[in-house]
Write a structure and sequence with these properties.
about 140 residues, alpha/beta
Length: about 140
């Protein structure tokens, strides 16, 4: 199976980097049936940058329901790193503010075809980028 890996050269609470990662995930909605946004934790997510980088109606639905279905039938789900084990069947994953551990957890899943990383700490992306064919976006 061919896998695509995308790295957003950003770190920390950079809103532009988060937007680039989210934009790529929604671009993939045209060719993928499902995707998952993996965040470090749900604690205070509604008061975080997550609520400001997405359009407000979409952010509210994702934060409240943890799932949204787009007009084309594509589903986007929201999970934390701790609950990722319950979201193993998606086509695409966005590790938003991902750590080394989050990247390893997504990489260990068997069904995905696209993985996007917006790292919190730049060093967390280095090993992954060196070990894989990563497209920088």
């Amino acid at each position: 199976m061919q896998r695509e890996r995308f790295l957003v050269k950003s770190s920390g609470d950079n809103e532009d980097g988060a937007r680039v990662g989210l934009r790529k995930l929604f671009e993939l909605a045209g060719t993928h049936k499902s995707s998952v946004i993996v965040v470090p934790a749900f604690t205070h997510i509604k008061n975080s940058m997550f609520a400001t980088v997405l359009p407000e109606p979409l952010a509210k639905v994702l934060i409240k329901d943890r799932k949204v279905t787009l007009d084309n039938g594509h589903t986007v789900e929201l999970c934390s790193q701790a609950t990722l084990k319950n979201f193993q069947r998606a086509d695409a994953y966005l590790s938003l503010w991902g750590s080394t551990h989050a990247v390893e957890d997504v990489e260990a899943l068997t069904r995905w075809t696209s993985h996007i990383l917006v790292a919190w700490i730049p060093a967390d992306a280095e090993k992954w980028a060196q070990a894989n064919a990563v497209q920088v976006i």
